[in-house]
């Protein structure tokens, strides 16, 4: 009997150091509820100009897709009535190593209309080489002037001589 009382006292002292974990406050797992998928919506090409919202605050989602597969692949897409759209697909790629390295390799695109009314579209891939975007809206460097190209060519053909001391 003394052993049971001693054991109960030790358990009470051990449980007292974790506030909020009393016998009536055990945290329970609550399964999140997933809303049903929205009804099918028209594709981006079929959206008329009159449907496009002028206010980003009042934009509504008109298409939403999100799929996650047991093997780690995923894909998502969404579109709003103010002209914003995005989509991405990803898959884990095994690079080996210890511990194993399994980053996601993703590719996708996003698009919107600028305040000037110009449609902007960017596509990208993100893999072991980093994030690689492409699109007309991404700035590109100016071409190298002809004189600089000639100078670089001359230097590559005639490297400077090392001075002897």
TrEMBL record:
GO molecular function: structural constituent of chitin-based larval cuticle
Superkingdom of the source species: Eukaryota
Chain positions covered by the region annotation Disordered: 32-52
Record bears the keyword Acyltransferase: no
Keyword annotations from UniProtKB, A to Z: Cuticle, Signal
Cellular component annotations (GO), alphabetically ordered: chitin-based extracellular matrix
InterPro entries named in the record: CHIT_BIND_RR_consensus, Cuticle_Struct_Prot, Insect_cuticle
Signal peptide interval: 1-16
Keyword set includes Signal: yes
Pfam families, per database record: Chitin_bind_4 (PF00379)
Listed Pro residues bias regions: 33-43
Record's protein name: Larval cuticle protein LCP-22
Organism encoding this protein: Manduca sexta (Tobacco hawkmoth)
